[in-house]
Amino acid sequence: NAGVTQTPKFQVLKTGQSMTLQCAQDMNHNSMYWYRQDPGMGLRLIYYSASEGTTDKGEVPNGYNVSRLNKREFSLRLESAAPSQTSVYFCASIRTGGNTGELFFGEGSRLTVL
Amino acid sequence: GDSVTQMEGPVTLSEEAFLTINCTYTATGYPSLFWYVQYPGEGLQLLLKATKADDKGSNKGFEATYRKETTSFHLEKGSVQVSDSAVYFCALSFNTDKLIFGTGTRLQVFP
Asked: For residue B29, what pLDDT is reported?
């Protein structure tokens, strides 16, 4: 079982460059999420998608865009990277219905912006 | 707003010691409560949960009891192992698909 797959695992950018983080899940989950993890801040929600074709802002959306391409894929784009976006990014998904609260996470993408 | 507060880490223990990681929450209602664990180099995974007051969640020797009167959900384990070294996150949810996470507590267990 692949679960949630994120690419790339590591990336170094210069200020002002753009890039897209890719995420795919093979569990037929409806909802997908992008979080960032920073020391002392825990996990903060950037964007989420409750279903294919819908996206909503989370706690820290500024500087990011997302695209829910289909039920499996949810990408996160940095149009003009800034050093403040240096972080570890996690994609996650959840089975809707049943209120299990069980998010399934990818292994993370470590981004450094110089 | 709703929030989760965890004790600062790192928590450093010897193998077979007793573990407590404190978690309290602030919420306008009665959320479901969760503990997630993040092993080095991995994403988070659900450790245990409780959905109503006085429920006890348990898994892999870890336990936590939902205490409405103290708005707490402290994580405990009677005898930790080196393999338990990880970051532990407390979280809450109100019957939605969005979780609110605490800042995480790093546990280091030495042989």
From this structure: 84
